[in-house]
Specification:
The chain is an alpha+beta fold. Helix content is 19%, strand content 40%.
Length: 151
């Protein structure tokens, strides 16, 4: 029987390859980052709901630069209350022809980047969606205010 010799360099290289593959596998297939907690509509925000109004809401379709259909929902949000609102997040629920929910997305109609919504002020909003499933009924999605943050 021939005597097989394995050099120490071969062992180190083999261990390094196994370690690299293990780290790659863990990063690729391992646990992902924890999902951020879902914002909740506080009691204070729930009481303020009648003072926020979405109006002139309509849809339009456009083509993106990569020939992909983009559905835009445009409208206005009005603050009829007496508090300055820093952000308003809505849940958009798209449905198929049978009325089954096929897509639910949370998006901001007012956010800190575009400035607050002061009492008596109306601001336009534009929501763009490019990932709506083909089974969508083409009907206006349900828009529900999901979170309000005050200044």
């Amino acid at each position: 029987m021939p005597d097989v010799k394995i050099s120490p360099a071969s062992i180190v290289i083999a261990l390094a390859v196994i370690l690299i593959l293990g780290v790659f596998g863990w990063l690729t297939f391992g646990p992902g980052p924890a999902a951020p907690p879902t914002p909740v509509l506080t009691r204070e925000a729930r009481a303020y709901l009648p003072d926020l109004a979405l109006s002139n809401v309509h849809m339009q379709a456009a083509e993106s630069y990569v020939n992909q259909r983009v559905v835009e929902i445009l409208g206005d949000v009005t603050n009829k209350g007496n508090r300055t609102v820093a952000s308003v997040e809505v849940t958009c629920v798209f449905r198929d022809f049978a009325g089954q929910e096929i897509l639910r997305e949370r998006v901001f109609v007012v956010d800190r980047q575009n400035g607050p919504l002061k009492p008596g002020q109306t601001k336009p909003f534009r929501l763009a969606f490019d990932d709506i499933p083909n089974t969508w009924s083409q009907a206006m999605p349900n828009l529900v205010i999901a979170q309000i943050q005050f200044e």
